[in-house]
Design brief:
205 residues; mainly alpha
Length: 205
């Protein structure tokens, strides 16, 4: 008789049923506005004095040479460390604190930088900030969305493409591997594509 292969089971702590998509979106917006409020509290004079977003420093980026391979390895180590720790916590009872903490920090930082850019470089600064997170933000958002679905989603919510479900019997494992792949693609975009977009825009300023 052939021995049947058992599905890989990952540990999971089931949380109460939450409208988790709205919860994560609301949490992000809350900390985004807290970042804006903090920047306004710091004041215009401080940001003009210590802010890194000013025309002189930004202009130097247009002609700076970047070792994309080394930059990729640097970002990979930095981004995957945070993502890996968050992913590990998602399979424990502390996952909600890890995921909301990371989401809140990114949202707060984005809100603060937006105001800093607006004060130092007006409209051009805001465009610069948007370009600095594009296109990798799409993949990063998808990766953390996958972690959120692992943490909050019920088993009934998981659907996988035809054929994939024959290979992966555990939907959470499939989501985790998909999230890791999204992170790697996002890091590649941030290392190779994003600098080209930024340099092209800066040279037209």
């Amino acid at each position: 008789m052939k021995k049947r292969h058992q599905a890989i089971q990952l540990p999971h702590f089931q949380f109460w049923k939450l409208p988790w998509k709205g919860f994560c979106a609301g949490w992000f917006l809350l900390f985004f506005f807290l970042g804006i409020l903090t920047a306004n509290w710091v004041g215009k004079s401080k940001m003009l004095e210590y802010g890194i977003l000013n025309p002189y420093y930004v202009g130097q980026l247009a002609y700076a040479e970047l070792d994309t391979g080394a930059y990729f390895l640097f970002l990979f180590q930095k981004r995957m460390k945070v993502f890996g720790l968050t992913a590990l916590f998602v399979f424990t009872r502390f996952g909600i604190f890890a995921l909301t903490g990371v989401t809140g920090w990114y949202a707060f930082s984005l809100g603060y930088i937006f105001v800093n850019a607006l004060v130092c470089m007006k409209f051009q600064g805001m465009v610069l900030v948007l370009l600095s997170v594009f296109p990798q933000i799409i993949c990063y958002g998808a990766a953390y969305f996958g972690l959120g679905k692992i943490l909050f989603g019920g088993y009934s919510e998981f659907t996988m493409p035809m054929g994939i479900q024959k290979l992966w019997k555990n939907p959470r494992l499939y989501l985790l591997l998909s999230a890791v792949l999204c992170m790697i693609v996002g890091i590649w975009m941030e290392s190779y594509l994003n600098p080209m977009f930024l340099k092209s825009y800066i040279r037209t300023m």
